[in-house]
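R.M. (postdoc): so does anyone remember the format we settled on? I'll just put the C-alpha cells first.
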C-alpha cells in the first residue's frame, strides 16, 4: 500500500464530518455506559443517561475525565472491552503516582496505526521510503505507533528504538533512511553527532516526524537546517492511543486532528467552560472509535488553540496549534505563569543551542528562576567580559518575554545531559 492518504475522510466537508461524529458519539456513549461502570456512575451523578446525548450539541453535558480519574480507576476501572478482547497495553512515562495504563483491542491497534500512517503520508512518506523509528519501544507509545504506521504505508521500517547513537547513525547511513521519527531533542542530538562524525554528506533523510514533547518553531528551523530535512510535528498521548491524534502537513501551520476518531474541545482550565473556536485553552478529547479504553471528555492539560482555516494541503480536518505548554507543567514563579517553551524560544532566537535546563528554587520564601544554557563551541573561547555581556543580553530578553528576572548561566558545550527520549528541562527544587 503506497498511498495511505484517506481522501474521503481527510477532505470531508464539515457536514459530512459532523454527521460521522454525531453517529459515532452516540454509539460510543452507549458503549461506555454499557461497559465502563466508573464512567456510568459519573453520568448518573449528573442525572444523565445515553438518551441525553443525541449528538455533538450535547457533548458539553458529559462529565470530564482527568488523569486523577485514571489513577483512581487503575488498573482496570476504565476498561471498555472484555480482557480477552484486549491485545496490548501501553503506559505513560509519568514519574510520580500510579502510572496510567491504556488498553487496546486489535481493532484499536489497527485504527491507531492508520492515524500514524496518515501522519507519515502527510510528511511525504510512501512505500519507497526507509523509515527509521528512533522513538522508544515498549510501554511508551512512540515506537510501536509509528512502527505500525510505517508498515501500513509500506515503508521499509527500521525498528531502532531510542538510544545507541552509533548504531542509529550506522543504519541511517548504510540503509539510506529517508524519514526519521523520534523526539525533537533526540533529533538535535543525532544532528550534533552527525556533524561531529563528519557524516553529513552520507545522510539521505528528507523528512522527520517529531513529537512527544514541546518544541518551538526556532527548534524546528535548527533541526531542518542541521539535517537538511523538513521537520513535521506530531501529537498524541497514551490515554487516547499515542502518536497520531494530530499531525502536520506540508503547510506546517499546526496539526490536523484525526476528527473521525477524536472530537476536540477547548475549555477554560479554571472553570471547565467550553470556549469558542480560536480561543486559547485546555484541549479535551472524546475518543469515538475506541473499544478497549474509550475515554469521553478527557482533559489533556495541554494548552492550545484550534483553527478551522482552509489548508493548502486540501485536508479539512481541524488544526491544533503546537501545545503552548501544559497547564500542569506550567511553572508558577513569583506568581507568574512561565512556560518552558517561552524560554526555549528566547534562547534559540538568540542563537543558542536547544540544550538548556530551567532550575526553580525557593530562597528565603521567594522563588528563584535560573536558566542554564550551553554556549556554542565558538563562544566557549570568548573572554569573560564577552560572556558576561551575553548573559546580560539573555537576562534582558527573558525579562521581556516572561516579565520576571531569570538568572542566566552559560555553561560549557555538552555539559547538559542529552536525552534519547523526552528531554528533562525542568528541575523544580521547590518540590523536592
Ligand atoms: O508522548 C505520545 C507521542 C509519541 C506523541 C510520539 C508524539 C510522538 P505521552 O507519553 O502520554 O504520549 O505524553 C503525552 O506529551 O499530553 C503533551 O503534553 C506532550 N506531547 C505529545 N506530543 C507533543 C507535541 C506521547 N508534538 C504528552 N508537542 C501530551 C508538544 C507534545 N507536546
Amino acid at each position: 500500500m503506497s498511498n495511505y492518504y484517506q481522501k474521503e475522510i481527510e477532505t470531508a466537508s464539515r457536514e459530512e464530518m459532523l454527521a460521522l461524529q454525531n453517529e459515532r458519539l452516540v454509539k460510543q456513549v452507549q458503549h461506555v455506559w454499557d461497559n465502563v461502570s466508573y464512567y456510568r456512575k459519573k453520568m448518573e451523578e449528573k442525572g444523565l443517561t445515553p438518551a441525553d446525548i443525541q449528538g455533538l450539541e450535547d457533548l458539553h453535558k458529559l462529565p470530564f475525565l482527568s488523569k486523577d480519574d485514571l489513577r483512581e480507576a487503575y488498573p482496570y476501572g476504565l476498561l471498555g472491552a472484555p480482557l480477552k478482547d484486549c491485545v496490548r497495553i501501553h503506559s505513560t512515562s509519568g514519574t510520580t503516582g500510579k502510572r496510567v495504563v491504556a488498553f487496546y483491542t486489535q481493532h484499536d491497534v489497527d485504527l491507531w496505526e492508520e492515524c500514524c500512517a496518515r501522519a507519515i503520508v502527510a510528511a511525504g512518506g510512501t512505500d519507497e521510503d526507509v523509515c527509521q523509528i528512533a522513538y522508544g519501544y515498549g510501554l511508551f507509545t512512540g515506537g510501536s505507533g509509528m512502527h505500525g504506521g510505517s508498515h501500513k504505508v509500506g515503508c521499509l521500517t527500521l525498528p531502532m528504538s531510542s538510544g545507541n547513537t552509533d548504531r542509529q547513525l550506522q543504519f541511517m547511513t548504510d540503509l539510506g533512511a529517508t524519514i526519521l521519527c523520534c523526539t525533537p531533542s533526540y533529533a538535535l542530538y543525532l544532528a550534533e553527532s552527525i556533524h561531529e562524525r563528519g557524516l553529513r554528506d552520507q545522510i539521505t533523510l528528507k523528512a522527520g516526524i517529531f513529537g512527544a514533547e514541546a518544541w518551538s518553531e526556532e527548534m524546528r528551523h535548527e533541526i531542518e537546517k542541521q539535517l537538511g530535512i523538513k521537520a513535521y510535528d506530531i501529537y498524541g498521548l497514551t490515554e487516547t492511543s499515542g502518536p497520531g491524534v494530530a499531525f502536520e502537513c506540508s503547510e506546517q501551520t499546526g496539526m490536523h486532528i484525526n476528527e473521525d476518531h477524536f472530537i476536540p474541545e477547548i475549555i477554560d482550565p479554571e472553570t471547565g467552560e467550553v470556549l469558542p473556536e480560536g480561543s486559547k485553552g485546555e484541549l479535551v478529547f472524546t475518543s469515538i472509535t475506541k473499544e478497549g479504553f474509550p475515554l469521553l471528555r478527557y482533559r489533556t492539560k495541554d494548552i492550545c488553540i484550534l483553527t478551522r482555516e482552509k489548508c493548502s494541503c486540501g485536508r479539512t480536518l481541524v488544526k491544533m496549534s503546537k501545545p503552548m505548554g501544559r497547564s500542569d507543567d506550567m511553572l508558577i514563579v513569583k506568581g507568574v505563569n512561565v512556560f518552558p517553551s517561552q524560554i526555549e524560544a528566547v534562547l534559540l532566537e538568540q542563537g543558542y543551542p536547544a540544550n538548556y535546563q530551567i532550575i526553580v528554587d525557593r530562597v528565603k520564601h521567594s522563588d528563584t528562576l535560573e536558566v542554564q544554557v550551553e554556549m556554542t563551541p565558538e563562544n566557549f573561547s570568548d573572554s569573560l567580559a564577552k560572556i558576561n555581556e551575553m548573559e546580560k543580553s539573555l537576562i534582558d530578553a527573558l525579562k521581556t518575554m516572561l516579565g520576571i528576572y531569570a538568572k542566566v548561566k552559560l555553561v560549557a558545550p555538552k555539559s547538559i545531559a542529552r536525552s534519547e527520549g523526552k528531554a528533562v528541562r525542568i528541575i523544580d527544587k521547590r518540590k523536592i
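R.M.: ...and that's the designed sequence above, right after the C-alpha cells. Also worth knowing: Residues 92-93, 135, 141-142, 211-214, 233-238, 242-243, 300, 302, 322-323, 326 surround DLL (CB under 6 Å). The two ends are 51 Å apart (CA to CA).
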